[in-house]
């Protein structure tokens, strides 16, 4: 973070710069700190990024982290602000929660590189079956079971999510 952006990391400075609409979760500029700023327009909603971002003195910052710090509490270096519903543009206070990386990973949606269409289900060439699995915090793969039917393998995994502390939204397509 740049030296100039660091001065805006405390709550008072954030409240001086931004206003927040709790019903929408949108953040707005209160004052122009450069000519490109548009007052009254939600920050970062229409950008191409997965997350809403704002540039504060040449430093890109995530809107969800700013909102969390303004209203909920201190950010921790070893924790992440999770969007509970998986919608990274939904920055309502009731949708933000501080979690470890491992906890946050349990709330991931289906990734774009997935080839089976189901999170935690992949083809096992040796067994010539679909394998249902979960990646654990230590990085090891826990194999839940195998099936010739992809839907049965997906169901095996889905039935084990709660047991291993995964979100009900884990692996969904947004």
Task: Classify the beta-strand content into a percent band.
Answer: 15-25%
The total beta strand count reads 9
| Text of the CATH class of the largest domain | Alpha Beta
Percent range of helical residues: 10-25%
Helix-strand pattern:
HHEEEEHEEHEEEH
Distance from N terminus to C terminus (CA atoms, Å) equals 31 Å
Average residue-wise pLDDT: 84
User: What's the CATH topology name of the largest domain?
Assistant: Homing Intron 3 (I-Ppo) Encoded Endonuclease, Chain A
CATH architecture of the largest domain: Alpha-Beta Complex
Write down the Rg.
Answer: 20 Å
The number of helical elements comes to: 5
Shape: elongated
For the record, the count of structural domains works out to 2
| Biggest sheet statistics | 3 strands, antiparallel
Low-confidence stretches: none
What structural class results from the helix and strand content? alpha+beta
Strand order in space, largest sheet: 7-8-9
